Amino acid sequence: MPLYVGLMSGTSLDGVDAVLVEFGSAAGSPFRVHSHVHAPFAPDLRSELLALNTPGDDELHRAALSANALARAYAAVVTELLFGASTSSREVRAIGAHGQTVRHQPGVADGTGYTIQLLNGALLAEFTRIDVVCDLRSRDVAAGGQGAPLAPGFHAAVFAQPGHARAVLNLGGIANLTLLPAVGDVTGFDCGPANALLDAWCQRHLGRPYDEDGRWAASGHVIEPLLDALLAEPYFGLAPPKSTGRDVFHLGWLDNILTARAPDAAAADVQATLAALTVKGAARDLRRHGNDYRALFVCGGGARNVHLMRSLRAELPDVAVEATDALGLPVDQVEATAFAWLAHRFIEGKPGNLASVTGAHGPRRLGALYPAA
Ligand SMILES: Nc1ncnc2c1ncn2[C@@H]1O[C@H](COP(=O)(O)OP(=O)(O)OP(=O)(O)O)[C@@H](O)[C@H]1O
Ligand SMILES: [Mg+2]
Fold this sequence. Notes:
The protein is α/β, with parallel strands linked by helices. 39% of the residues lie in helices and 21% in strands. A hairpin with a 6-residue loop joins strand 5 (100-106) and strand 6. It is globular, with a radius of gyration of 20 Å. The mean pLDDT is 97. The structure holds adenosine-5'-triphosphate (ATP) and magnesium ion (MG). Residues 8, 10-12, 14, 170, 172-173, 195, 198-199, 210-214, 300-302, 304-305, 335 line the site of adenosine-5'-triphosphate.
């Protein structure tokens, strides 16, 4: 059975998750993850990628060099992944590589807009000698879609249970929700900010990259008027299809609202409020889709945040909230496995998007191929 590598580095900018996956194994299960590696970004690369999220000097040159640096970082992770799994590159059919989103502007300006995931796919193919499928979002945007979220197709393929409504919530830099109804079309969209803002606020005030287990947030009190002001951001009221990123939800956005509404707020209380924003935003989005969803499976690094999980359970008392580990896929492997799946779909000549999710004109084969040789 063919093996695929999935490489994901999301908006949290914490680093790269890599998985080695087999699809359609003889045992009948739709997939099996053979191994997983997480590699944090080198601090210089991380800060440059973060800087490239906002307009700046000489950014074409800097973006191109960062795309090269990402290819090197991805290649190193692939080497580690394959070595650890005693697998040779010849056994891998393709790599599905996300790249690093630095702008996400579907539909803007000229009506088509764009989404940019930095990565030099040619260089990654050169280093790994494996077929690389990357730039997985642009075709959906070209077809009038949001280009995001793309994980719902994978969630539908592996997590759906016919006759039972299930929801999947990914808490990455941004939170995204997938709704797998008992019958009918799958839907999904980005809810709003998750770790991107929690991490940034924590870094600014504690000098730490993230709020471990949400302990700092748990030590604070939610400032209700601030929470209301944050939830008044128009994005939360938009009907799907919709997607977002650091373009909207960055520290400047928070600072503006803080200055206007809570200039003297204690930092821990702001962290508590940001956690509540993630939880309330997602819970509200789930409830808007009716009462069918009694099972919510959470993935992404935010599922390791004890405070976020506890708050989600409190906010949704009639919903069973569990990590995706309960479905056989650990929380930090879901997104990377989704990108391996997307590469698998590309190679098989199948569409990767769900038009019901992204709003594209129809199903499309997603990605650009850089052949191994
Ligand atoms: N023990 C923990 N406690 C609190 N937060 C955690 C913990 N472990 C991980 N995280 C959070 O998870 C983040 C990483 O999550 P993840 O890799 O899913 O995000 P991402 O890279 O933005 O992914 P994507 O965009 O694919 O959803 C970290 O930046 C951190 O905020
Ligand atoms: Mg990550």
